[in-house]
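Preliminary data (for renewal application), S-adenosylmethionine complex.
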Amino acid sequence: MRLRNVPGSREAIAESEYTINEPELNKGKWKEIFGNDNPIRIEIGMGKGKFITTLAQQNPDINYIGIEKFSSVLIRAIEKMEELELTNLKFIRMDAEKIEDTFNKEEIDKIYLNFSDPWPKDRHAKRRLTSKEFFKRYDNILKKDGVVEFKTDNNDLFDFSLEQIPEAGWNIVEYTRDLHNNEKMNEGNIMTEYEERFSKMGNNINKLIANR
Ligand code: SAM
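Predicted structure:
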């Protein structure tokens, strides 16, 4: 992703009512943040937030948390929220490596990973959000029947993920290498910013769903 430094974005994010600063202080208490017992779903690496914002608008009885490490893109999602004022969506600016410090065992219902950074060099494989190292982290925050959904146009990253996820002790429930032409898996699909861009270029979109 080409990232521009957006002056003042860090400060604006910290001051927004939609951002949770010091998220680790809420570990085990996320229901209190939302003020209800509704399920909590997260998107890791949400970018400008089109996907998770649309989901939150469509499903007011589900709570959503968007996680993004760069202020310069997160600020765009926050600006959108200032207009929409949804009560079931919050944002966290952090690196997902800290996810087990932020959520308790079984606190999360579903994890979305969309067009995650490929980290093409072998020595960076552990940084990929679908590496077995990350799936072990997801083990510690997801409900027993929780699922991970992953979409990407990067075929190498998808192949890597199909190998790594079972190595972490998870099952691939379903997958496709051509989401937009798979009637069943594409039903209700919400396109992300990257998905729109890459499918317009003619790239195939891969999707998998994993559980334990
Ligand atoms: N999900 C969006 C989409 O599909 O349009 C954005 C995709 S973009 C290629 C990947 C995003 O994930 C970037 O905004 C990047 O900063 C974020 N990201 C990558 N690794 C992350 C991590 N470890 N923790 C939090 N965010 C991360």
